[in-house]
UniProtKB/TrEMBL annotation, chain A:
Domain ABC transmembrane type-1: 243-453
Entry protein name: Peptide ABC transporter permease
Any GO CC annotation of this UniProt entry: plasma membrane
Keyword set includes Transmembrane helix: yes
Subcellular location: Cell membrane
Listed GO biological process terms: peptide transport; protein transport; transmembrane transport
Keywords (A to Z) from UniProt: Cell membrane, Membrane, Peptide transport, Protein transport, Transmembrane, Transmembrane helix, Transport
Family stated for the protein in its record: Belongs to the binding-protein-dependent transport system permease family.
Gene3D superfamilies: MetI-like
A Pfam match: BPD_transp_1
Membrane-crossing segments per the record: 6-26, 47-66, 157-176, 197-226, 246-269, 281-304, 324-343, 378-405, 430-453
Bilayer topology: Multi-pass membrane protein
Automatic annotation (TrEMBL), chain B:
Organism this protein belongs to: Candidatus Desulfobacillus denitrificans
Compartments where located: Cell membrane
Any Pfam family: BPD_transp_1
Keywords annotated in UniProt: Cell membrane, Membrane, Transmembrane, Transmembrane helix, Transport
Chief location bin: membrane
UniProt-listed InterPro entries: BPD_transp_1_N (IPR045621), MetI-like (IPR000515), MetI-like_sf (IPR035906)
PANTHER family linked: INNER MEMBRANE ABC TRANSPORTER (PTHR30465), OLIGOPEPTIDE TRANSPORT SYSTEM PERMEASE PROTEIN APPB (PTHR30465:SF0)
Descriptive protein name: ABC transporter permease
Membrane topology, from the record: Multi-pass membrane protein
Assigned protein family: Belongs to the binding-protein-dependent transport system permease family.
Keyword Transmembrane among UniProt keywords: yes
Length: 476, 325
């Protein structure tokens, strides 16, 4: 096999590197750490962070791509397959390869549509044929199905409980060592939430996740847990693959727009004069075009360009990836204006403060003042708007894909899943599982992102600093 | 006041020129009309004659900016830039790919779009402001807490889910209203009810939370304490003082979208088969009808700028401290 580095992969890893670097930078500075500690103190923040980490892990595993080596014909040099796979595909090999003929319900052993089959005695009958993979190990479906499903669920749940207990035990032992207390005392403090960080919320979220993932994985060995779609692909596989697309759109778009928004916002606010006028004109103009239409126009143009030049890309995956990246760029261009305006206003305020005037009096250059004195003091705005934008972008992807200006139809994403599945509700009987699976996964991802964004905003927004309301009971 | 309006209208001109240049760049320079013709006619089997015919049909066979072969003023006017971009300022949109006049189409489709957008907007504003006032009244109680939780959950649900789920439940399972379609006159009620309700429901989460924050910010101010000290009831404080003052930030967000109501809603209209401007835009995007997309981009920016102007004017109406000069 040969590794393949798609453009979005490279940017994702760049983003991870940036994340780690800023993590190290922050961890060495007490005053920066204080705000992050407040995020850790929030229960919703810790629980949603746990879920987000799980999503990010799936997304990262799905970002390691390679092209498998083809079986070399005798005497000829072996080539590489045109198909690009990821590490997640390898891990989910059984799900990926276990395609059926068409729809099948979650955990079903039969297809969802009748088919005419020839019976051994030569007559024909309309029956629900057995699936090739789902429940294929059952000899007699009616007798064994219930027992098998229950057993597998229980086995998965038991493993999940075991894994969960291991995590809790590790956390307790670690805490006990750290505080120099016995493990019983440590456990009591964690359970009651008397720790500084809301570890009990994180552990509870992890436990719930394991309790869902354990049985799902255990059942996935023999069944299609979430059913199959029209062409027989496993829906669980599709939803897991969609996570990467959602994360890429949510994060890379921000990465693309940040340099614009920060540089232009700071310069407009600090320099003023005609530069300010020009930058304001720029973002008012961009802002005045309705977002969807600007995106539509740009995506149409990108599509024309991509279709005109099939020779640019070696594989279909690279073409789809280019379109995904283009979508991120376009979304970035249309979404930097809000942050830019906020930063300009904040810089206008900061510019007049004494410490900036002092720096000017010392003869510091404008670039140095912007970089050393103003930028650090607007970073909280940048951070808040980055985390707030994420969930909106994930939701926007689905809508744009529906309109036909989203990701490439061959890219697996929540949007393309919903788009192909939405007509199935008109079928009789209704095919609901792929639609519901996409919506539920998207809901959990967006909800976690929203809760985390709220925790970050509460911790970083200085306007809220004085007014942190203590609410009754456990709401504090 | 009048001078202010005139000056603001003059400010709008460079912005519209910017929009115009941007769309011109996007549609004619980044990809040439030849590329578009090839794309529309199918990449593989396309002859130069077919491309020339396609371009001539749409008037794309002229030079971009400067026509050397023409005489006098026609050197500038007989170009793609003048014919396709400058004429937008006169609201001359030309013809769509199916040969119909775009301006005419827009006028007939405006009605259904407004019929759905205006009730959604008014009802939505009423519901979210009332809900936010309720949460602000019961602030720091469990009702408030669970109300906010509900809002966060509702804003985490994809708008597609509201539409698909609502259509499925109300139309398909309960058979209360038709799944999609449109009719003129009073008969339209039947078709509009569900999209309006879904539009309102989809907007509740984020707007309510936003308005609640505004109300809570106002409630913390000194004049509210004074009002309470006078012995006013909490309800009187909320409605007579807080609501009025909170209107100012609410207006900023709300007035600017009023003109854009003309554009209709892309998703709702296309799901419910309502022949408005939103579904027109979607159809144009799917059919890659660049003339229509260009016209909609221009109209959208005109309406947005009108919204900005209206926002500023509405300030003077609700906030006597604001003087426009």
């Amino acid at each position: 096999m040969t590794p393949v580095l798609l453009w979005t992969d490279a940017l994702v890893f760049l983003l991870v590197a940036c994340g780690i670097a800023s993590g190290i930078y922050i961890s060495r500075r007490e005053y920066l750490l204080a705000s992050w500690h407040r995020v850790g103190e929030s229960r919703a923040g810790m629980a949603s962070l746990t879920l987000l980490v799980a999503f990010v892990v799936v997304g990262l595993i799905d970002s390691l791509h390679y092209r498998p080596r083809l079986e070399a014909a005798s005497g000829q040099p072996g080539g590489y397959s045109g198909e690009v796979r990821s590490l997640l595909d390898v891990l989910l090999q059984p799900l990926r390869d276990g395609t059926e003929k068409t729809y099948s319900a979650p955990l079903a052993a039969h297809l969802y549509a009748r088919e005419t089959v020839e019976l051994p005695d030569g007559s024909q009958a309309r029956v629900f044929p057995r699936l090739k993979h789902g429940g294929a190990h059952l000899a007699d479906v009616e007798a064994e199905w219930g027992r098998d499903v229950t057993l597998r669920t229980l086995r998965g749940a038991a493993l999940a409980v075991l894994a969960g207990l291991t995590f809790v035990a590790l956390a307790v032992l670690f805490a006990a060592r750290r505080w120099g207390t016995g493990w019983q005392a440590a456990w009591r403090r964690i359970r009651r939430g008397e720790t500084r960080f809301a570890w009990h919320a994180a552990l509870a979220a992890l436990g719930m996740l394991l309790l869902l993932a354990g049985p799902a994985l255990s059942l996935a060995g023999g069944y299609h847990v979430l059913g199959t779609d029209k062409v027989g692909q496993d829906v669980l596989y599709l939803t897991l693959k969609s996570i990467r697309t959602g994360l890429v759109i949510g994060t890379l778009t921000t990465l693309v727009m940040l340099p614009f928004a920060v540089a232009l916002g700071l310069v407009a606010g600090y320099v003023g004069g005609w530069v300010d006028d020009l930058i304001q004109y720029l973002y008012t103009t961009l802002n005045s075009i309705p977002g969807v239409l600007l995106i539509a126009a740009a995506v149409l143009m990108v599509q024309v360009a991509i279709d005109m030049h099939p020779d640019w890309f070696a594989t279909a995956a690279q073409r789809a990836d280019a379109r995904l990246l283009a979508l991120c760029l376009i979304l970035g261009v249309t979404s930097w204006t809000g942050l830019c305006r906020l930063l300009r206003a904040e810089t206008l305020k900061l510019r007049e403060l004494e410490y900036v005037q002092a720096a000017q009096a010392f003869g510091a250059s404008a670039a140095r003042i912007l970089g050393r004195h103003i930028l650090p003091n607007v970073m909280h705005i940048v951070l808040i708007s980055v985390v707030m934008d994420f969930s909106g972008l994930v939701l926007a992807e689905a809508v744009l894909s529906y309109i036909g200006i989203g990701v490439d139809p061959s890219t697996i994403s929540f949007g393309t899943m919903i788009n192909t599945a939405r007509l199935e509700l008109a079928r009789e009987p209704v095919v609901w599982w792929s639609l519901l699976a996409a919506f539920v996964f998207m809901f959990v991802l967006v909800l976690a992102a929203n809760l985390f964004a709220d925790a970050v905003r509460d911790a970083f927004d200085p306007r809220l600093a004085g007014s942190r309301r203590s609410l009754p009971g456990k709401m504090a | 006041m009048l001078a202010y309006v005139v000056r603001r209208l003059l400010y709008a001109i460079p912005i519209l020129i910017g929009v115009n240049l941007l769309t011109f760049l996007l549609f004619f320079v980044v990809n040439t009309p030849d590329d578009m013709a090839r794309m529309q006619l199918g990449i593989k089997r396309v002859t130069p004659e077919a491309i020339a015919h396609w371009k001539a049909e749409r008037g794309y066979d002229k030079p971009l900016l400067y026509n050397r072969n023409a005489e006098g003023a026609a050197r500038v006017t007989n170009t793609i830039f003048f014919e396709k971009s400058v004429k937008l300022f006169a609201f001359e949109f030309g013809r769509a790919d199916d040969g119909r006049d775009i301006g005419n189409e827009i006028r007939t489709r405006m009605g259904p779009s407004l019929a759905i957008a205006v009730p959604t907007f008014v009802l939505g504003l009423f519901v979210t402001v009332s809900f936010a006032l309720l949460l602000a009244f019961f602030r720091a109680t469990y009702l408030d807490f669970w109300g906010v939780v509900l809002c966060v959950a509702m804003m985490s649900i994809s708008s597609l889910f509201y539409i698909i789920g609502g259509q499925y439940l109300v139309s398909k399972v309960w058979h209360l209203v038709p799944i999609s379609g449109y009719a003129g006159g009073l008969d339209a009620m039947r078709f509009l009810l569900l999209p309006v309700l879904i539009g309102v429901a989809a907007g509740i989460g984020s707007s309510t939370r936003w308005y609640r924050t505004i109300f809570l910010e106002e409630i913390g101010k000194d004049y509210v304490r004074t009002a309470r000290a006078k012995g006013l009831s909490e309800l009187a404080v909320l409605f007579r003082h807080v609501l009025k003052n909170a209107l100012i930030p609410i207006l900023t967000g709300v007035v600017v979208v009023i003109p854009l109501l003309f554009m209709g809603s892309l998703l709702t209209e296309s799901f419910f088969g309502i022949p408005g401007l939103g579904s027109y835009t979607i159809d144009a995007i799917n059919a890659q009808d660049f003339a229509v997309v260009r016209a909609m981009v221009f109209i959208g920016s005109v309406l947005y700028i009108a919204g900005l102007l209206l926002t500023d004017l509405s300030y003077t109406l609700v906030d006597p401290r604001v003087r426009l000069q």
